[in-house]
Protein backbone atom coordinates (compact mmCIF):
# COMPACT_ATOMS: atom_id res chain seq x y z
CA UNK A 1 0.00 0.00 0.00
CA UNK A 2 2.95 2.32 0.64
CA UNK A 3 4.08 2.09 -2.99
CA UNK A 4 0.52 2.63 -4.21
CA UNK A 5 0.18 5.83 -2.15
CA UNK A 6 3.56 7.11 -3.39
CA UNK A 7 2.51 6.40 -6.98
CA UNK A 8 -0.77 8.30 -6.57
CA UNK A 9 0.90 11.32 -4.98
CA UNK A 10 3.81 11.53 -7.45
CA UNK A 11 1.35 11.55 -10.36
CA UNK A 12 -0.39 14.62 -8.88
CA UNK A 13 2.45 16.81 -7.55
CA UNK A 14 4.99 18.81 -9.54
CA UNK A 15 7.84 18.93 -6.99
CA UNK A 16 8.47 15.23 -6.35
CA UNK A 17 11.88 15.97 -4.79
CA UNK A 18 10.15 17.60 -1.81
CA UNK A 19 7.76 14.69 -1.29
CA UNK A 20 8.15 12.69 1.93
CA UNK A 21 5.70 10.09 3.22
CA UNK A 22 6.00 8.75 6.76
CA UNK A 23 3.93 5.76 7.86
CA UNK A 24 2.94 5.30 11.50
CA UNK A 25 1.16 2.15 12.66
CA UNK A 26 -1.41 2.41 15.42
CA UNK A 27 -3.48 -0.47 16.86
CA UNK A 28 -6.62 0.48 14.92
CA UNK A 29 -5.26 2.71 12.15
CA UNK A 30 -2.45 3.40 9.72
CA UNK A 31 -1.41 7.06 9.63
CA UNK A 32 0.41 8.50 6.63
CA UNK A 33 1.96 11.93 7.05
CA UNK A 34 2.60 13.47 3.65
CA UNK A 35 5.07 16.36 3.50
CA UNK A 36 5.26 18.23 0.22
CA UNK A 37 6.18 21.53 -1.39
CA UNK A 38 3.78 24.38 -0.65
CA UNK A 39 2.98 24.75 -4.37
CA UNK A 40 1.61 21.19 -4.39
CA UNK A 41 -0.47 21.46 -1.22
CA UNK A 42 -3.61 22.62 -3.01
CA UNK A 43 -3.25 19.93 -5.68
CA UNK A 44 -3.33 17.17 -3.07
CA UNK A 45 -6.20 18.63 -1.05
CA UNK A 46 -8.26 19.60 -4.10
CA UNK A 47 -11.39 21.69 -4.23
CA UNK A 48 -13.40 21.09 -1.05
CA UNK A 49 -11.06 18.19 -0.20
CA UNK A 50 -12.23 16.07 -3.12
CA UNK A 51 -8.74 14.93 -4.19
CA UNK A 52 -7.55 13.86 -0.73
CA UNK A 53 -10.88 12.11 -0.13
CA UNK A 54 -10.52 10.23 -3.43
CA UNK A 55 -6.99 9.17 -2.48
CA UNK A 56 -8.25 7.97 0.90
CA UNK A 57 -11.06 6.02 -0.77
CA UNK A 58 -8.64 4.36 -3.21
CA UNK A 59 -6.35 3.37 -0.31
CA UNK A 60 -9.30 1.86 1.56
CA UNK A 61 -10.31 -0.19 -1.48
CA UNK A 62 -6.69 -1.28 -2.02
CA UNK A 63 -6.38 -2.19 1.66
CA UNK A 64 -9.53 -4.31 1.62
CA UNK A 65 -8.54 -6.12 -1.59
CA UNK A 66 -4.80 -6.65 -1.08
CA UNK A 67 -4.05 -6.87 2.62
CA UNK A 68 -4.52 -10.26 4.25
CA UNK A 69 -4.80 -8.84 7.77
CA UNK A 70 -7.87 -7.16 9.20
CA UNK A 71 -8.53 -3.82 7.55
CA UNK A 72 -7.66 -0.79 9.65
CA UNK A 73 -8.66 2.84 9.33
CA UNK A 74 -6.44 4.92 7.06
CA UNK A 75 -5.60 8.46 8.11
CA UNK A 76 -3.86 10.92 5.79
CA UNK A 77 -2.18 14.04 7.16
CA UNK A 78 -0.74 16.62 4.75
CA UNK A 79 2.03 19.05 5.75
CA UNK A 80 3.66 21.80 3.73
CA UNK A 81 7.46 22.00 3.66
Give a quick precis of the structure.
The chain is α+β, with helices and mostly antiparallel strands and 81 residues long. It contains three helices and three strands.
What does this structure look like?
The protein has 81 residues and is an alpha+beta fold. The chain has a single domain (2-80), classed as K homology (KH) domain (GMP Synthetase, Chain A, domain 3, 2-Layer Sandwich). The protein is 44% helix and 27% strand. The chain is built from three helices and three strands; from the N terminus they run αββααβ. The protein has a three-stranded mixed sheet with strand order 1-2-3. β1 and β2 (29-36) form a beta hairpin. The radius of gyration is 12 Å and the shape is globular. The mean pLDDT is 89.
Which features would summarize this protein structure in a list?
81 residues; 27% strand; alpha+beta; single chain; GMP Synthetase, Chain A, domain 3
